[in-house]
Design a protein that fits this description.
The complex is a heterotrimer. Chain A is an alpha/beta fold. Chain A has helices at about 15-20, 25-50, 50-65, 70-80, 90-105, 115-120, 125-130, 140-150, 165-175, 185-200, 225-230, 250-265, 320-325, 325-330, 340-350, 355-360, 370-375, 380-390, 395-410, 415-430, 445-450, and strands spanning about 85-90, 110-115, 135, 205, 210, 215-220, 235-240, 245, 270-275, 290-295, 435-440, 455. Among the domains of chain A are: about 45-300, NagB/RpiA/CoA transferase-like (Rossmann fold), CATH 3.40.50; about 420-460, no CATH class. Chain A starts with 12 loop residues before the first helix and ends in a 7-residue tail after the last strand. By secondary structure, chain B is α/β, with parallel strands linked by helices. The two termini of chain B are about 20 Å apart. Classes of the chains: A alpha/beta, B alpha/beta, C alpha/beta.
C-alpha cells in the first residue's frame, strides 16, 4: 500500500495555492465545511456557553506550559506505575526509530493506526514502510487518502475535499466489489474491510489528545470507534504524544475535554473519549499487553520562555483552520506541512526553523485578518505570533526583501521624500492609465494586475 | 437527573427508556429483537444475572456469547458470516447534561465491548448518573482508588462525517445505541 | 479633514507625518517599520487626539505600536499615542457627532468590515452608527466580516488566493444591490473594486469619509 506523497516534493507553495483556487470541487467542499463549522460555533456560543469557557481554558493551558517539566515527570511516573513504558523522544527521528525498532523486535508485519498528527510530523508511515512493515490508517478519511496516496487536508476531518462518487470508485477499484455510491454502503464497506486489520495487527498506534498527569491517563478522542479498536485489540499499543499535550488533573481535563469538541466540530461531545490508564490488567481479555507512551519533544520544549511560548497551548482542535479565509480557499494539502492553517503557519517555522523551506513560507500565506485569533478556544494570539515570526524569518528571498524595506524606511521617515514618492506614484499611474484604469503593470507589480484592475485615481471614474 | 440524561440521549442520536428492575430483562430482549440481533455479547456480570437478562436472551432464541470469551477477534468483530450481534454493557457511570456513558474495563467487561458489536445496549443503574462530566470523572478517578485500565466515554453510536461532511452512523463502532435505565431499588 | 471641520472640530494636519509603518511591520521587517513609525511618534507628539481615516493605520498605532515599541526607549511615547489615536468614525461616534451625508451621497450603501477595524479595534458599531446618522440606508451583505483578501503584501505574494477572496467580497457586495460599497480602509476598496471590474462585476465604492458632508 502506498505510504503517501512526501510533503517536501512537488510544486512551490504559490503554485499549489493557485491550483487549489482553480479546483471548483475542492472550493465547493471547503465552503460547505466552513458554513457548517460556523453554524456549529454559533450554536455552541448561543446555547452552550462556549465563550465563557475560553478564559479558563487559556489559563489552564498557560499553567500547563509553565509547569511542563513537572507535569511530564508526574505523567511518566504514573504511566510506569500503571505498567506502561515511557520513551522521551528528543526529535522526530528518535520517535520514529523507537517505533520501528519496537516493530522489528516484536516481529510485527501490520500496524493499525488511528489518526495522529504527531505521527505525520515524524513521518512514521514512511519509516515503517521502509522497514517492511505495512501500515494501515483506520480513520475512514485517512484510509481513503492512504489509498489515494494523498496527505490529510485537515487536523480533524482528513478527506474533506472528496465526494462520494470519487470514494465509491476508489473502493470498487480496491475491492473488486460493486459498491454503490451511497454513504451508508461506503461506510459499511470500510467497516467490514478495516475489521480484518484490527483483528490482525500486532501493533496499534494512536495519538494522544491529552495526558492527565495525576493518574497517568491518556485521552484519545474520536467519533468512529477505530481508535478504540486500535488501542484495545493489538497486543502492543504505541501512543504518540506531543510533549505539550498534558494537563495536571481531572478538573482541568474535564474542562478541556468538554471544550475540544465544541471548538472542533460545534457539538458538546465527540462520540468517544478513550481514557487509557495502562495496559490490560490481570484477568482482562482485551487491551494491549504492552503500552508504550512516546513523548515527542521535536523543538517544543525550546519554545518555553520565548515570545512564541503561547503556541504550545494549542489543543489541535482545528478551529483556526475552519475560520481562516486562506484555508477555506485552498484547503490543508496546499500548505504542504503536517500542520496547516494558522497554527500550521506558526508552528511549522517554530519547530522546523525560521529558514526551513516550509517554515519560512507558510507565515506569509495569510492576509493577517485575525479570524483565527478570535476562533482559538485557548486564546492563542495567532495574528501577533504570525507578525513576530515574519520578522524572524531569514532566507535569501527575505533578505533581499529586507534591502527593499531598508530603502523604504530611509525614504519614508523623511516627510519630503514621502510626499515626493506619493506624488510620483500618482502621476505615474495617471500617465500609464487609460480612462482612469490600468490593466497591466510590469514586473512584480504585475502580480497586482494579474487579478485586478488598478484605478489611477480615487474615486474611480464612473 | 434521569430525565435530563434520557433527554440528552436524543442529542447523541441514541435512544433510551427508564424501567424498574423486574421489567429490565424483557425490555432488553424486546430491543434486541426489534434490531434483529441474532447474537448477544454479554459481560459475565452478577447484576445482569440477578436481573435475569442472560436467561431471557436464551429464552428468546438469541445466541449468547459471554465475556470473557475465547472466540477469536474475527468472530467477535462480526467477520466471516458471524451472526449480527448486540453488545451489552454495564456502564460504571453516566453524565446527565451530555447523555454520555462511562464504560469501564474489567476481566468480565472488555474495554472494546460496545464497539465490537453492531448494536450497543447499555444497562445503566439510575443512581450512577452524575450531573456533569467533571462530576463523573471526579468519581471515576477519585484519589486513593485504582481506576479501570480503560474507561470509554460513550456518547451515542459511532459515526463519521468524512464522506461529504454528512454524518453517517455505524463506522467502526456501534450503529445504534439504546440505554435501559434501571431505577434503583433497595435490594441492589 | 473637512468632514471634521464641518462638525466644528479644530483640525491640525502635521506636515511632518509620513506613514504609520504598518507595511513594513506586517511584511516582517520590524526594525524598518520602527524607523518609519518613529517619525509618526514625532509628528503626532503632544496631547491632542489623533484621527486616522483608515482602520488599518489606526489599529497599527493602537495595537501594533505596543508590540513594536515594547522594550524600546520610545515605549512610553508609543503607549501615549496609542491611547489617544482613533479611526475617523470611531472618533465621530464616540464624541456624539452627527455628520450629514455628502451632497453626492448615494441613497443606499453596503459596508465592508475591514479586518483590522473589526478585530483589532473592535469596531463594528461606530461606522454603522455614522452611516445611520447621515441618513443613508445600509444594506448588509453576506459575510460582511470575512476578509476581502487584500492583506498588504499578501495581495502580490499570493495573488490567486487574494483574488479569490476579493471575488467573493465583490459578488457579495454587488448582490445587495446597494448603490455603493463603503469601508473605512481604502486599500480594501481598491482591491475589491479592481477585482470586481476585472470579473465584470461593476461596483461603485467610496471611502466612508467621502460619504459625509465636508
Amino acid at each position: 500500500m502506498r505510504t503517501g506523497v512526501s510533503y517536501d516534493e512537488g510544486p512551490p507553495l504559490r503554485a499549489r495555492t493557485a491550483a487549489a483556487v482553480a479546483d471548483a470541487q475542492l472550493r465547493a467542499n471547503l465552503q460547505a465545511t466552513a458554513a457548517s463549522w460556523t453554524a456549529g460555533r454559533e450554536k455552541m456560543r448561543d446555547e452552550f456557553g462556549f465563550d465563557q469557557m475560553r478564559d479558563r481554558a487559556r489559563e489552564i493551558r498557560r499553567g500547563n506550559i509553565r509547569q511542563l517539566p513537572e507535569l511530564l515527570d508526574r505523567l511518566e511516573e504514573r504511566v510506569r506505575a500503571n505498567g506502561g513504558i515511557v520513551y522521551r523522544a528528543s526529535d522526530r527521528d528518535a520517535a520514529a526509530k523507537y517505533v520501528v525498532d519496537l516493530a522489528r523486535a516484536r516481529g510485527a508485519k501490520l500496524v493499525a493506526k488511528s489518526k495522529s498528527m504527531a505521527t505525520e510530523e515524524i513521518k512514521l508511515n514512511e519509516a515503517l514502510g521502509d522497514a517492511g512493515v505495512r501500515v494501515v490508517e483506520t480513520d475512514l478519511g485517512e484510509w481513503i487518502l492512504q489509498l489515494l496516496g494523498q496527505r490529510p487536508s485537515h487536523i480533524i476531518a482528513p478527506a474533506v475535499h472528496l465526494n462520494r462518487t470519487e470514494i465509491a470508485e476508489l473502493f470498487r477499484a480496491e475491492s473488486g466489489e460493486d459498491i454503490p455510491d451511497e454513504r451508508e454502503a461506503l461506510v459499511a464497506y470500510a467497516r467490514r474491510r478495516l475489521r480484518q486489520d484490527f483483528a490482525a495487527a500486532e501493533i496499534g498506534v494512536s495519538g494522544v489528545n491529552l495526558g492527565v498527569a495525576d493518574t497517568g491517563t491518556l485521552c484519545v478522542m474520536e467519533n468512529e470507534g477505530n481508535a478504540r479498536l486500535v488501542t484495545a485489540l493489538p497486543r502492543v499499543h504505541v501512543a504518540m504524544m506531543g510533549a505539550e499535550r498534558v494537563v495536571a488533573d481531572w478538573d482541568e481535563a474535564a474542562h478541556i475535554l468538554q471544550l475540544l469538541p465544541m471548538a472542533a466540530i460545534g457539538d458538546d461531545a465527540s462520540t468517544y473519549v478513550n481514557l487509557i490508564t495502562g495496559p490490560r490488567r490481570e484477568g482482562e481479555t482485551d487491551g494491549p499487553e504492552e503500552l508504550h507512551l512516546v513523548i515527542l519533544d521535536g523543538g517544543r520544549m525550546a519554545l518555553r520562555g520565548t515570545e512564541f511560548e503561547e503556541a504550545l497551548s494549542c489543543i489541535r482542535c482545528g478551529a483556526c483552520l475552519y475560520s481562516c479565509p486562506m484555508w477555506r480557499t485552498v484547503g490543508g494539502q496546499a500548505y504542504g506541512s503536517p500542520y496547516s492553517g494558522p497554527i500550521g503557519a506558526v508552528i511549522t517555522p517554530l519547530l522546523e526553523g525560521m529558514s526551513s523551506p516550509r517554515g519560512s513560507e507558510l507565515p506569509f500565506l495569510s492576509s493577517l485578518c485575525g479570524a483565527c485569533h478570535d476562533a482559538c478556544p485557548v486564546g492563542i494570539p495567532l495574528h501577533d505570533l504570525l507578525v513576530r515570526i515574519r520578522g524572524a524569518v531569514s532566507t535569501p528571498v527575505h533578505r533581499r526583501a529586507r534591502i527593499g524595506a531598508r530603502m523604504w524606511a530611509a525614504a519614508w521617515r523623511r516627510p519630503w521624500a514621502y510626499r515626493v514618492g506619493v506624488a510620483l506614484t500618482r502621476g505615474g499611474l495617471r500617465l500609464v492609465g487609460r480612462k482612469g484604469w490600468i490593466r497591466r503593470l510590469p514586473g512584480p507589480a504585475g502580480r497586482w494586475t494579474s487579478q485586478r484592475d488598478l484605478p489611477t485615481r480615487w474615486p474611480p471614474p464612473r | 437527573m434521569i430525565d435530563a440524561f434520557t433527554g440528552a440521549l436524543a442529542r447523541r442520536r441514541a435512544t433510551g427508556q427508564v424501567v424498574d428492575a423486574d421489567e429490565c430483562a424483557a425490555t432488553c430482549v424486546a430491543q434486541m429483537t426489534a434490531w434483529g440481533a441474532r447474537r448477544a455479547l454479554v459481560p459475565d456480570d452478577a447484576w445482569l444475572a440477578r436481573l435475569g437478562l442472560p436467561h431471557a436472551i436464551r429464552a428468546a432464541g438469541i445466541e449468547i456469547v459471554t465475556w470473557p470469551s475465547d472466540r477469536g477477534w474475527r468472530e467477535l468483530l462480526g467477520l466471516d458470516d458471524a451472526p449480527p450481534t448486540c453488545a451489552v454493557t454495564v456502564p460504571i457511570g453516566a453524565v446527565a447534561e451530555r447523555g454520555t456513558l462511562l464504560v469501564g474495563s474489567s476481566p468480565t467487561h472488555g474495554r472494546s465491548l460496545d464497539a465490537v458489536g453492531w448494536w450497543h445496549l447499555a444497562v445503566l443503574r439510575a443512581d450512577l448518573i452524575s450531573a456533569t462530566l467533571a462530576d463523573a470523572l471526579g468519581l471515576a478517578y477519585a484519589p486513593g482508588m485504582a481506576p479501570p485500565s480503560a474507561i470509554s466515554l460513550v456518547s451515542g453510536p459511532s459515526r463519521t462525517s468524512d464522506v461529504e461532511k454528512v454524518t453517517t452512523y455505524g463506522a467502526h463502532g456501534a450503529l445504534e445505541e439504546h440505554v435501559v435505565v434501571v431505577r434503583s431499588s433497595p435490594s441492589d | 479633514m473637512r468632514v471634521l471641520e464641518k462638525l466644528g472640530v479644530t483640525v491640525t494636519v502635521p506636515k511632518a507625518q509620513t506613514c504609520c509603518g504598518q507595511p513594513g511591520w506586517s511584511a516582517g521587517h520590524p526594525d524598518q517599520a520602527r524607523t518609519v513609525a518613529r517619525q509618526a511618534l514625532k509628528a503626532f507628539a503632544g496631547t491632542d487626539p489623533v484621527v486616522v481615516p483608515s482602520g488599518s493605520c489606526a489599529a497599527m498605532i493602537t495595537h501594533g505600536y505596543i508590540d513594536l515599541f515594547a522594550g524600546e526607549p520610545e515605549e512610553d511615547a508609543a503607549r501615549d499615542l496609542a491611547a489617544r489615536t482613533f479611526e475617523l468614525t470611531q472618533f465621530i461616534h464616540r464624541n456624539g457627532l452627527t455628520p450629514a451625508a455628502a451632497q453626492d451621497a448615494p441613497a443606499s450603501v453596503t459596508y465592508h468590515d475591514s479586518c483590522h477595524m473589526l478585530r483589532l479595534l473592535g469596531e463594528r458599531d461606530s461606522p454603522r452608527a455614522v452611516i445611520a446618522s447621515a441618513g443613508v440606508e445600509l444594506v448588509e451583505m453576506a459575510d460582511t466580516d470575512v476578509c476581502c483578501g487584500f492583506g498588504g503584501a499578501f495581495s502580490i505574494t499570493f495573488p490567486e488566493v487574494s483574488g479569490a477572496l476579493g471575488e467573493q467580497k465583490a459578488r457579495s457586495a454587488a448582490d445587495t444591490e446597494a448603490e455603493e460599497l463603503v469601508a473605512c480602509d481604502l486599500s480594501c476598496l481598491m482591491h475589491i473594486v479592481g477585482r470586481g471590474r476585472r470579473l465584470g462585476v461593476a461596483i461603485r465604492a467610496r471611502h466612508i469619509a467621502d460619504l459625509l458632508d465636508a
